């Protein structure tokens, strides 16, 4: 299939040709060449800058869900207590994932259209439940909302909770993610969102405390983190690394750092504001409630009452625009404009919003 | 890094430009487009032809080890009995992997330089131990040997053992793999060996019996097979599929089927025979014992006594040839020529063997 003429899906986003080209080459065997290890280390360093952390970054071959599973399975054992702070599909979903591992999960739940804002409730749950891990989502893609990781990180520190797990898959590279300042132990990312690479790789930052727990846990599997701890030093990865995929991730980081992280973040904020203004201007309703923190990478809008999602999607596609629908309880009701990574482009978003306006008013 | 001038590593092999090019394009969102589902189905069908099976094929985003773990974790629970038939690094390794799941593992072990050949011993172990699963490796890459899956499959049938698990990662697309005729329940493959694609995807065939056990087991995770069972029908994959990776795998299958599977297999046999003849002709010693079944995809040779592996490797690299070293107890002692996939090319192998000869005699 051809690339969408006006791609506005909230991931996988349109991949710039410079990143695509990196995959069109042969390299040596990643198992054998020091050059691969150097590329891996250089990519780790770039991701550390983008995530603002001194923590080691692990890069894995597989989609973003691999990072989500890796971090849970490598640190949790049956019976462990997990406090799942949930404001959307992924927030609640991570709690369910921890349950399948046999953990005792307590959920502090909010509406899908809210951000975490009742910190007394969270603090009370932390005190009462004394979890081993707090889980949360930094950017809830299906809801178009952001959660205040800083505030939860401060509570984690205050009460000495061992692990803070943050799904930042659709935030990293488009939001200001401050892993160390926020006290995040496991910060999870993927390539096909703000990094604008294909959906082939995932990565996460791992704190010293998390490494300690990973060693205790001794989890083994494709998604085990432990073998990555000394992989560079030992020049031995647990499976043949995907050189082209790592090279694409490296190139993606390079483009962000070349533009400047602050500029990239500002570009996302500006484009998101524009998208929301235009949406409100054409009479559309934001899905998030007033008071929710709005995402700089994706805007979630209510499907207008006079039009089905199917009809809206078809009409937009006829004009070349492809946006995201939704899942679960939001299916058919909420649609999303993904202005992340390569798609956080004012001219592209303007074009898309002009067409959306004509469709909504047409 | 540039491609090796004369690539002879037993995977990841040199990727033909036609396969590389497929990754240099943007596609739509694999979560949304029927065209992706069609590509997935078409790739499944092509792999069924290459593996000679009517069983459903699951295609996953991740390196070949993902298939190995998937098939174990999705079917086994702690306490299950696993009979690990082992003739090399992977054969013994799979037994260890099953142990980490908590299975009771009995190993019928042979030398690293042998093929499974004592079928009475295997039969006795099957009768005594009555395993839920028999595991084996079709093509032991580090050893350059093949195991007779047909004979083990017949024993499996005779005794009604539920599952036969076969790692055929370095055989599929270069050997005649007969999944149905051999009664294989879980036949595991990867992209970077005989299929000549990058190390990004893995796949496996799953029998009806295996699906039944997968449903009973209820395993959940990135490497869980269950969500793939009805993924096509439900148009819902457990994570965003990697469109470029699937497209490369599809192209790789297409190239094999276009050449003709029988011709591809014959090409591998012919090149392997040539490689062995030349090796013996220059005074090198095959690693496998007489009586072992020799691999058509990789030749394992003893490092000549007068030369260290390091020196051999350096000398070959100076002339543009890169071969594989070895791991574990074979490190430094056995090296390997990977004539699989794109590298099962008579002209290429001839060039490499000429250089090897000059280095060995130089």
How would you describe this structure to a colleague?
The structure is a homodimer of 362-residue chains. Chain A is of the alpha/beta class. Helix content of chain A is 40%, strand content 17%. Chain A contains 12 helices and 14 strands. Chain A has helices spanning 17-21, 34-51, 64-73, 89-100, 119-129, 149-159, 208-217, 231-234, 243-259, 261-281, 309-318, 346-361; strands spanning 6-8, 56-61, 81-86, 104-109, 133-137, 139-140, 145-146, 163-167, 186-190, 201-206, 293-294, 298-302, 321-323, 334-338. Chain A has a 7-stranded mixed sheet with strand order 2-10-9-8-5-3-4, sandwiched between helices. Chain A has a 3-stranded antiparallel sheet with strand order 6-7-11. In chain A, helix 2 (34-51) packs parallel to helix 9 (243-259), helix 5 runs parallel beside helix 6 and helix 10 (261-281) runs parallel beside helix 12 (346-361). Chain A is globular. At the A-B interface, helix 3 and helix 9 of A face helix 3 and helix 10 of B.
Characterize the quaternary organization of these chains: homodimer
Share in helix of chain A: 40-55%
Topology as H/E string of chain A?
Answer: EHHEHEHEHEEEHEEEHHHHEEHEEH
Mean of pLDDT of chain A: 97
Kindly estimate the percentage of residues of chain A that lie in beta strands according to DSSP: 15-25%
Largest interface comes to: A-B, 56 and 56 residues
